[in-house]
Amino acid sequence: MDFLEMSSEVKNALKNSQPVVALESTIISHGMPYPTNFETALELEKEVRDNGAVPATIAVIGGKVKIGLNESEIEYLAKAKKIMKLSRMDLPYAVSKKLDGATTVAATMICANFGGVKVFATGGVGGVHRGVNETFDISADLVELSKTPILVVSAGVKSILDIPKTLEILETLGVTVVGYKTQDFPSFYSTKSGSRLQMHVDSPYEAAELYKTKKKMGMDGGILVANPISKEHEIPNDVVNNAIEQALKEAKIKKIIGKEVTPFLLSKIVELVPQALEANVHLALSNAALAAKIAKKIEIRS
Ligand code: PSU
Ligand code: MN
What we know:
Elements: E1 4-6, H1 8-15, E2 20-23, H2 26-29, H3 36-50, E3 54-61, E4 64-67, H4 71-79, E5 84-86, H5 91-96, E6 101-103, H6 105-115, E7 119-121, H7 132-135, H8 140-147, E8 151-154, H9 163-173, E9 176-180, E10 200-201, H10 204-216, E11 223-226, H11 237-253, H12 261-272, H13 275-299
Parallel strand pairs: 1-4, 2-3, 2-7, 5-6, 7-8, 8-11, 9-10, 9-11
Antiparallel strand pairs: 3-4, 3-6
Helix pairs in contact: 3-4, 3-13, 6-8, 8-9, 10-13, 11-12
The structure holds pseudouridine-5'-monophosphate (PSU) and manganese (II) ion (MN).
């Protein structure tokens, strides 16, 4: 794979069956404002290390799929104004044209899998957008979860999305969705969404066993571990919901479509509810810590 460039740290870790956790880059370039995005990207790597795994932040730079970015590459992504947002459809184009791009959950899963990374921590995955009946806007993240064998830790999905419909599609696609110590599907800023989950795991060990079992059974696709934000950092639903309603209204007026929808809504929400950014950082860190613990359990020979 001449398009793949792994850092020596990640390469060594994988060679020695040490735990590695993939981290995405769209959260840096399109998910948070500078400088919080840069600081958070570094803190996420530290959190993974502090919990005993090697971080591998993923992006495409100069047409190379990079697994394990250095600090200046992360800074570049954090500051770049017009960096491409790469999902599955864009990935071969960016590589072929030797472009730079940040990877979404879908593209990060694909790239992690190229390198043999099994676990990936993010903030929130994409899903079925509200108004899907008209727009057909369904994130490619969901389809990727049905194809690519990565365990993804996320704080559920934001209520900018239609959460019940997102869960329906995940069921249709056969994605194994489990709550982490919860039976409520979390909605990013909130531990609950009103949607219930049938399945849960209660330890990193159980999550690792689920991953190993799915693999042993030869079944395609990933696992979505929904890890709720901690109670102390939770933002009440009604506080965020007003902001979300307003953001959605504005997106409609401004005719924002396609891959611009999610970044537009994310930045609008932070503009309207500044504490949302801090909550976002906290939940992402908590997901990175849990992902590292799960990755460690996966690498223990059973
Ligand atoms: N949700 C968030 N923060 C994010 C994203 C989603 O709360 O940063 C990013 C992720 O990279 C996710 C992508 O994969 O947005 C989904 O975009 P779309 O809806 O265009 O598929
Ligand atoms: Mn979309």
